[in-house]
Specification:
Layout lengths: L7 E11 L6 E8 L5 E8 L6 E7 L5 E6 L5 E4 L15 E11 L5 E10 L22 E9 L13 H10 L4 E4 L6 H9 L6 E3 L1 E6 L2 E6 L16 H10 L3 E4 L26 E8 L2 H7 L1 H13 L5 E5 L20 E6 L4 H9 L3 E4 L7 E7 L5 E3 L3 E5 L2 E8 L5 E6 L2 E7 L4 E10 L3 E9 L6 E5 L2 E5 L5 E2 L9 H11 L12
Parallel strand pairs: 9-10, 10-11, 14-15, 15-16, 21-28
Antiparallel strand pairs: 1-8, 2-7, 3-6, 3-8, 4-5, 4-7, 9-17, 12-13, 13-14, 17-18, 18-27, 19-20, 19-22, 22-25, 23-24, 23-26, 25-29, 26-27, 26-28
């Protein structure tokens, strides 16, 4: 749209080469003339051999203005409105910077051309925006269901199907209480969400997916952009996680085992050795499509999770749909908002309460979705109290877990200690309560509960851990007859049920 009387203050044409090596980012400075109300940045580059360049803008004071990623639409930065992924605001005269990210380059590199137009008036329709105001949609203490990984149109790799309103509508339809709008390397969605939150029936958590070329993670509960450019000015993953925590947010590692090479740039977590794991709150045990991911990725993630837990890091199990289309035409490797579904035990439906619940590791992941089978569990404490999933309990001689399974008929629940299956319980009926028991001895252990589907023997529920400190001088052992491998009790129960032995080899996934 062109406004009558609009004046073009100036234009710039810039060209260059992006070549492998010398870091992942190129700075292209450009001068912004006085009186600019809106600038439009068009760019082209050599896409042969599937090359991809990312683009973003930093303003004259070196602060962030927006990130397109690989989106090739023209960038428009304006005083009152900008295109998706970009923040509106004052446009100061001076030297701004277009940052080019080398997402995928062939050996010969890619030539790029940039054309910038500066205007004295706006062409974009202004969308409703507001400052963030904390809300509490419920004051009850209970398990709240949500999705920590949802993209809107503010992400450069989404389509126009996934407006924030579309995401919220789908979340409500799926029975969710909250979602985290995790748009890539931007916070332009925050003001849009704040304007609509008073009318939404679902809580939308602030944040961003901090997307690097060597790992993706969600900063949940943050209010400003966290620089994602690992390697730029010696920036590290330590800096990223520190910045999220400094804003009062939590950091969650996304799809850490999704090693898909150039099909998903940086999706696998490449920072196992340089991540400040004591500052990380959780890890996605499944991201997106259950049909493929539960066998292809989840077993590897659980090994990673157990390795980190063995080293003393306590991480909540979380998950996310990674939905980019608000449920429109999702493929086999994708899923709708709410699949997986994460339940968080929280003291209310507010951002602060949900974050506190994750920090306390009060989480359960239904890998297929909220309408699937569910597992909850509590543990007796030595003083007669009740511990929740995620709690740390000291002075335990007999660890007794009361497990409640709904909708899991013909499935098999299992107790895992320190990453090994030690006991199983076949589920008969759609509302079943039973106990798992173990004697931790003088050592400290962690316990989680999993549920596999009876027909396919694939995981459908994973809880976070109970952390149990034993009593010095007491002897350990599984008081219900479990074995360290989990096979002996399983053989027994399967024999009672008349099931075939081939199922035994598929339970310890």
């Amino acid at each position: 749209m062109l406004i009558v009387g609009l004046v073009v203050l100036g234009t710039l044409h810039l060209e260059g080469m992006a070549t492998p090596g010398n870091g992942d980012f190129i700075d292209v400075p450009f001068a912004v003339p006085a009186g600019t109300v809106e600038m439009q940045i068009a760019r082209t580059y050599d896409t042969t051999q599937s090359q991809i360049l990312d683009f973003g803008v930093w303003q004259a004071d070196a602060s962030f203005r927006g990130w397109s990623g690989g989106l090739t639409d023209d960038i428009v930065v304006g005083v009152d409105q900008s295109t998706r992924g970009y923040l509106p605001g004052a446009i100061a005269t001076g030297t701004w910077t277009l940052v080019i990210g080398k997402a995928r380059l062939a050996a010969q590199g890619s030539h790029y051309a940039i054309d910038i137009t500066f205007r004295d008036d706006a062409t974009l329709t202004v969308r409703p925006k507001a400052d963030y105001t904390p809300v509490e949609l419920s004051a009850d203490t209970r398990w709240y269901r949500g999705d920590f990984h949802v993209h809107s149109t503010e992400s450069g790799d989404t389509t126009t199907d996934a407006s924030p309103d579309d995401d919220v509508a789908l979340a409500k339809m799926q029975g969710l209480d909250f979602i985290h709008m995790s748009d890539h390397n931007t916070v332009s969605q925050l003001a849009l969400s704040a304007a609509s939150q008073p009318t939404w029936p679902v809580l939308v958590l602030r944040g961003s997916e901090i997307t690097t070329y060597s790992g993706h993670g969600n900063g949940v509960g943050i209010s400003s952009y966290v620089d994602h450019r690992v390697g730029y000015d010696n920036r590290t993953m330590q800096n990223i996680v520190d910045d999220v925590v400094a804003q009062g947010g939590i950091f969650l590692v996304n799809h850490p085992a999704d090693n898909l090479g150039q099909q998903c740039i940086g999706c696998a977590w490449g920072h196992m050795d340089d991540t400040p794991w004591d500052e990380v709150s959780g890890i996605e045990v499944l991201t997106s499509g259950w049909d493929i991911g539960v066998n292809l990725f989840t077993p590897t993630v659980l090994q990673m999770w157990d390795t980190l837990e063995d080293a003393g890091h306590k991480l909540a199990a979380v998950g996310g749909s990674d939905d980019h289309r608000a449920g429109v035409n999702e493929g086999g490797t994708s899923s709708d908002v709410g699949s997986p579904c994460v339940s968080v035990l929280a003291d209310g439906l507010s951002e602060a309460a949900i974050l506190a619940g994750v920090r306390a590791r009060h989480t359960i992941v239904q890998l297929r979705g909220c309408s699937d089978a569910m597992v909850t569990a509590t543990m007796k404490t030595p003083t007669g109290g009740v511990a929740q999933i995620g709690d740390e309990v000291a002075g335990v001689e007999d660890a007794v877990f009361t497990v409640h399974v709904t909708g899991g008929d013909t499935g098999i629940a299992s107790l895992w200690r320190d990453g090994k299956q030690i006991d199983v319980h076949p589920i008969s009926g759609d509302d079943v309560t039973f106990t798992f028991e173990d004697r931790p001895g003088a050592e400290n252990h962690r316990y989680r509960i999993e549920l596999v589907e009876g027909q396919s023997n694939r995981r459908i529920v994973i809880t976070s851990h109970f952390y149990v400190d034993g009593i010095a001088g007491s002897s350990g052992g599984c008081s219900t007859g479990g074995s360290p491998t989990g096979l002996l009790p399983l053989l027994g129960v399967l024999g009672l049920l008349g099931l075939k032995r081939r199922r035994v080899d598929r339970v310890a996934l």
